[in-house]
Amino acid sequence: VSKYDIVKLIVPNFKPAKDVGTAFAPTNIALIKYWGKRNQELNLPMTSSLSISLADHGAHTAVSLSDADTIQLNGDVVDASSAFAKRLIQFLNLFRGPGVCFNIAIQSNVPIAAGLASSACGFASIVKALNDLYQWDLNAKSLSILARLGSGSACRSLWDGFVLWHAGVLDNGMDSYGEVLEEQWPDLRVGLLLIDTQEKSIGSRAAMQRTVDTSILYRAWPQKVSHDMPLLRQAISCKNFQIMGEIAESNALAMHATMLSASPSICYTTPETLMAMQKIWRLRAQGLSVYYTQDAGPNLKLLFLQKDHDTVIAEFNDAVIINPFSG
Ligand code: 2P0
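# 2P0 complex -> structure
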């Protein structure tokens, strides 16, 4: 099954219905991580995952018809020979008739390639902008499947709030998509602790595959997710912040343990990351209810409740605080 086969199943036509399609998609942070694929062509995951979207932190995208493919990122033209442009053009090839070229303008307020899920909101916003350009009128589930073809985690960026990505079992992935959870948690806060926003040494896609292929600990990962998922769902539905924080932190640590045991080993954690972790653990021992999660990069995302906002800010004064349910 190819990406083209899936697009054919979902998309009704390639007849642009207007000059420009626009859309916004939020970025998302996984509380239970997506780590490992059962199908690399279709970005089908080994396990389900669960994320929280970051409200107005994400990507605005405008797609218009053009004489040649051009890409702008935050106002700058992207070199067509760059890896980023090639990946985007390949994705756009799925969605055009003969002779059609696009201009894509992406405005992102998320640090690119810093483990802050810039590809998630990028691909989700492109799919939504194409849906607008072609006036397909697809539902969010279909858009989620299309976004997954660009980047796995993008299938969780079609909604605000908590999103569950069902792993699915089908070979064609038609049962592997995001679903928004009905629970709202207005007191929940996410703090972005930007430790290092430089481009990382190994991308998450390659890191994920190397882990699946070589890590002795990876075989425990599906078990870890099966253990964590019902507990996190329960914690969300009864708003038990302590359990949510413990599960999210433990899930991230387990993911990084699978990477450390890959060959060659993958370590996104820097001395600065470790110092921040130890500070969080120290604060927690002193009674402050703050937890973290970490993705494929050195930065941490703090999890805490509104009542502790001032204390958290006093300890981490450069953290960017996000209210995921502010919309
Ligand atoms: C996640 N990450 O659940 C996990 C946790 C990074 C760590 O999804 O190959 O860019 O495009 O499907 O989505 C980052 O990997 O990988 C990611 P592809 P993606 O957020």
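# post-check
The chain is about 35% helix and 25% strand.
The mean pLDDT is 95.
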